[in-house]
Amino acid sequence: MRFLIQRVSQASVTVDQKVIGQIEKGVLIMIGISDNDTKAIADKMLQKALGLRIFEDSSGKTNLNLDSVGGKVLLISQFTLYADCRKGNRPSFTDAGRPDFANELYEYVISKSREILGEDRVETGAFGADMKVSLLNDGPFTVFLDSEEICPNVS
Asked: How far apart (Å, rounded) are the C-alpha atoms in residues 7 and 137?
């Protein structure tokens, strides 16, 4: 599982010219899922992502996590995080999870996020849709988490 986390002042996702999710201060998390991922991996990745101290305290140091600042999260399914660009110029996505499996695990991440943060602090995209994502990156501040590094012994 891979998370691309961007600290944002605002972010939104549009499908068919309709905004389906938007947040103010918080994080936009793009989620890539492989067939090797599990709910245990998702739990560990969420724990890490939501606990990251990437927001500034009163001294200007990145000491605060999402909960400390009352931030929101926008979750977007992003199979292209598993792009393999080693050969040629056309990315291969064979490492990305099968759509049915990936959607099931994406929905699990959404439900766990809502359980942890509350319904009103979690917004989402639409799995498999042609989404237009807009964001105002705060910093900019972007962090990449890969489950092979974050939870190598979890299955």
From this structure: 6
With a pLDDT cut of 70, the percent of the chain lying above it is 100
Query: Is 78 designated active site?
Result: yes
Catalytic one among 80, 93, 101, 144?
A: 80
Q: What is the DSSP letter of 150?
A: H
**Interacting residues of 96 by C-beta distance below 8 A, sequence separation 6+:** 32, 33, 34, 79, 80, 81, 82, 102
Average pLDDT (122-148) is: 95
Of 152 and 68, more confident = 68
**Burial class, 104, CB count within 10 angstroms (exposed 0-12 / middle 13-18 / buried 19+):** middle
pLDDT at res. 77? 96
